[in-house]
Amino acid sequence: MGLYADRLRPRLHDSALGPRVTGAIRRRVCADLAGDVLEIGFGSGHNLPHLPAAVTGVWAVEPSATALRLSEERRAASPVPVVVAGDDARSLPFPDDRFDAALCTWVLCGIPGAAVALAEVARVLRPGGVLHLVEHGRAPDPGVRRLQRLGNPVNRRVSGCVLDDDVEALLAAAPLTVTRLAHWYEPGAPRSLGSMYEGRATA
Question: What is the signed CA dihedral for 181, 132, 174, 196, rounded to 10 degrees?
Fold first, then answer.
């Protein structure tokens, strides 16, 4: 990766997706997690303060060494043990049925081949294990979708992700059963940037 993608983009994500902007959302998404949890796209650890007491450990999959360095203080302060355990969600180094739950927050839009990552998540979840997720993705409104398509080239360069990821289609094609999926627009944000999907899916 280049200097920007390797060193600067993780710092942008750390700031833009920090607790002031995303804290309430993360708290909602993390609610009811329990047992051993796989987190793909661990980033700089912003989910750690929102994990319930029932979580016994987090296995973090994160490709960015810079993001992991930014997470060090949060990991040290967390009462939940964190194991850094991989860097590619498309090839998870875990046996089948390993985890009680999985967590994914603003990640799929930046993974080439996100369908493979979801299949891997389903593989390592025990039967009945639940994926908790929030993602930005394809807006239901045609006018907003046009703006997302126009904005994708710049957003890929700046944020490393696409704006119009089809979250519903990805989940429908995955070996998971969607039990809850809501779409909403982030208040105060341009709709092309703030189109969000939040939900849960069971293995």
Answer: 50
Write down the number of H helices and E strands in the chain.
8, 7
Rg (CA), the chain: 16
Alpha-carbon span 184 to 140, nearest angstrom? 10
Asked if 135 and 196 touch (Cβ cutoff 8 Å), the reply is yes
pLDDT tens digit string along 137-170? 999 999 999 999 999 999 999 999 999 999 999 9
pTM beyond cutoff 0.90: yes
- How is residue 18 annotated by DSSP? S
Distances (CA, A) of 146 to 67, 138, 188: 32, 10, 20
Structural tokens at position 147: 């703006």
Angle between helix 9-16 and helix 142-159 axes, rounded to 10 deg: 130
